[in-house]
Structure of NADH dehydrogenase [ubiquinone] 1 alpha subcomplex subunit 8:
Amino acid sequence: MVVTLDVVLPEESELTVEEVNLSTASLRAGSFHLGKYCEQANNEFMLCRFEEDDPRKCINEGKAVTACTLEFFRKVKKSCLAEFNQYANCIDKSSGDFSLQHCRKTQGVFDKCMLENLNLERPPFGYFCEPRVHDTKRPKPPAEPKAVYPDATPALPDDAERKPARFGSRFYWMTE
């Protein structure tokens, strides 16, 4: 995409949304449940980005993903705050790369709380790698017409004078 004077950029007010102000450990702690909870909004956003190939056309879908994320973490705060904080703290302190392998006990406590209070089961391993068909109400954008180019420049006639290359052949490995 080439930016010219014809490109209309969105106003800052259109782009301003409440941000998800959480640490990396907190986001990793809630990532699996968040992915399951906001799957519809996230798939809609990713479909829009893929089909439209222009991020300006997917601002509303992006806002929906952010709103869903905020809603999810507010629900976690109301119902499983202690378990969530314990799990996030374990992720933060147990390794330098926020690895989950050292925190399986606190993960189990958090998963149990999420299942009991929010009825949200942790998705199985590989869930987000499985192919799925996403049903959307948004119309498919029209296909971009195929570019039509004029015919190629005609070649030199066979009897045209062909001077030798000024600096030798391009195929130097064949002439040595």
User: Anything to note?
Assistant: The chain is about 50% helix and 0% strand. The CA atoms of residues 165 and 172 lie 12 Å apart. The chain has a mean pLDDT of 89. The two ends are 45 Å apart (CA to CA).
